[in-house]
Amino acid sequence: xxxxxxxxxxxxxxxxxxxxxxxxxxxxxxxxxxxxxxxxxxxxxxxxxxxxxxxxxxxxxxxxxxxxxxxxxxxxxxxxxxxxxxxxxxxxxxxxxxxxxxxxxxxxxxxxxxxxxxxxxxxxxxxxxxxxxxxxxxxxxxxxxxxxxxxxxxxxxxxxxxxxxxxxxxxxxxxxxxxxxxxxxxxxxxxxxxxxxxxxxxxxxxxxxxxxxxxxxxxxxxxxxxxxxxxxxxxxxxxxxxxxxxxxxxxxxxxxxxxxxxxxxxxxxxxxxxxxxxxxxxxxxxxxxxxxxxxxxxxxxxxxxxxxxxxxxxxxxxxxxxxxxxxxxxxxxxxxxxxxxxxxxxxxxxxxxxxxxxxxxxxxxx
Length: 366
Description:
By secondary structure, the chain is α/β, with parallel strands linked by helices. Helix 5 runs antiparallel to helix 11.
């Protein structure tokens, strides 16, 4: 009966009539896949410089294959890193001691990240181990933005209004992505960065009378509304801090991922610093019933963090309807033996080979 009624309705209704379609009935839906690396510590290749041997345990050269595969399968993707990239192995030390940027060259780690077309990154505490000048010169070679909202230049006054950030506190990127109906949609993605305040204690010589570090959550509460005012449809936080605050930190409240997740307006938190994975194992998908989604991708490129966001546009505004956190590993363990689950990115391997050979020579001289 209903079918005949609808046929009659469409045949006899005047051409001047129209049907009202509610936003909830045809709302645009976009699925986004956000990828994360963290705590690489110079480990671009799957190589142990101390023992001079190949490994399947780590290496961005293997993570890169996972990244490329996801980009082939999904159209709407983002790729970020959450810090501790410049220091930690022989490659990092070689780059520091050779002062390559004086010759107009790009830091080897930054070069690898440029190759992979990162959308953004933040700095970790170990970025400051070689001093502020080395850090800033290294970042100049990046073809992608570095953001940090809670490190400020010490102006030696008590007025917070005129404080100046060391790096851009956030950026808003314009993206054109395809929705489930195949229609191109324009979105604004807000990206903000943070680092654990304990960095000021661990690298006192570079921070004292030069830089100050503010509370992470308080800083987020200041900037997130500004990002919304500038039109950010979703906000991604890149946080180099643990789920819990560092044990040696005097002011623990507000300086953890747990606290940051309580800040209204953040849709996803990618974090690093503690060299662990969250969710706790590959294959475990955490469906988030309340925002934000959270992920941590281990260290040295041994895992790739992934956050899936389902965005729905209702009444002209994009909202996260569903989010899922997961990780992918570059190896699996069978009978106490690590078996690679992904191959090397041979193009990245070739790109890094000259630096790799120089590092081996440098290590032998040492």
